[in-house]
Fold this sequence. Notes:
Layout: H1 3-12, H2 14-34, E1 39-50, H3 55-75, H4 79-89, H5 95-99, E2 102-106, E3 112-119, H6 122-143, E4 155-162, H7 175-200, H8 207-211, E5 218-223, H9 241-256, E6 264-269, H10 276-287, E7 293-297, H11 305-309, H12 317-321, H13 327-330, E8 332-334, E9 339-342, H14 351-355, H15 358-370, E10 373-377, H16 386-391, E11 396-402, H17 408-420, E12 425-433
Parallel strand pairs: 5-12, 6-10, 6-11, 7-9, 7-10, 11-12
Antiparallel strand pairs: 1-3, 1-4, 2-3, 8-9
Amino acid sequence: MDLARYLSVLLKGWKIIGAAAIIGAVLMGAYSMLSTPQYRATTTLFFYLSGADSTTQLLQGSTYAQNQVRSFALLAEQPVVLDPVIKELNLNETSVQLSKQVTSTVALDTVVMDVSVTDTSPTQAAAIANAIGQQMSAAISGLSPTGTTAANTATVKVSTVAPATVPQYAYSPNTKLNTAVGLVLGAAIGMAVVTVRELTNNKVTSAEVAKQFTDVPVVGDIPYSSKAAKGPVIDPDAHSAQAEAYRRLSANFGFLDYGNSMRSIVMTSCLPDEGKSTSTLNLAVALSQSLRVIVVDADLRRPSIAKLTGLNDGIGLSGVLTGRAKVEDVLQNWRHGQLQVLTAGRVPPNPAELLGSEPMRQLLSELRQQCDLVILDSAPVLPTSDAAVLGRSLGGILVVVDTKRTKRADLKRGLESLTLAGGNVVGLVLNKTTNASSTYYGQYGPQPTANPKSK
């Protein structure tokens, strides 16, 4: 994945990243607020020599003290210092437990040591730190060597140069810092989730993805809208995103039929419930602004055109193909005569045979004489062979792809099935696309309308 693609993926998943960042900040903030405050008090000790009466002794003793001060710092966490402190302050804990609250540090090349104590009580933290400073003086005085050589005639002493004061603010938790860390970690986790999801996503989410494994062009891009008005068909006069998308699909169809020879097309999908029937009706409505269009419900397994349009489905296509009715008797006007619709009729036991029969070819020839374009809504490709059967005798096939459901392998198998059967797949119609993936046309944004109607 190159940088541009990576940035595009992150931009598309900004909601997930933002939500993860907020959740991380809230969790860390809540953890900080619920945690017991810890206070830190620090006393500063200075090590010096006592008893040296010459420059040589001072230099040698100072070097000795500087070399030993790190060892002396360990005493601040040892029982020799902590046991007297516990006894003095009457603490209800052992020297091992108290040592976990004590930290001693020595600045490089100095004889200055800081002893810090952390406690839930600010007063007690200061009291323990000062008590340790006092006990350090007694312990080191007892442990410092004395003798007759120049190097150790001096005795190391300890002086408190900065006694511990009662801290005004808690040392831990740092709510602001923890919240910021939670925000950053949450955002990082969100970006990781978005990236992994994209890398493992096997759905046809955009035109760019479709181009990776097929040369069939994407001729339509229908954006998803959770605010779509009730009803399956867009209003041709509306300015919703869906209405604009179907107008673009209608315009692109004109480029596909540049010779005006495509008199009939099949609308299908790889799997059920991808929106092929709704797309069929919406495309027919858009095309009917300049063409005479007849819609045929050729899905003789799960017909839905009658339900979407509210038309009578007593005798339809199946009745015509079996000779029980004539086409002029079952064609119905819809939307005040804007379109003519031939519903499916009763579901027959042999749909594929009927659709590939001679009566079906005669019917299509008759319908072509009555209009400029016949649009057939066919059953899905993978579960049935109906679309493949129809595609052999029609001008072209449009495949509707649900970007939230259709897997890449399914689309590839569906296109191969149609091509092997002799069908001419002229384009893909991406359905339920996101705003980010529906901008490849470079169109202007749709204008709002007071009463938009969409599918």
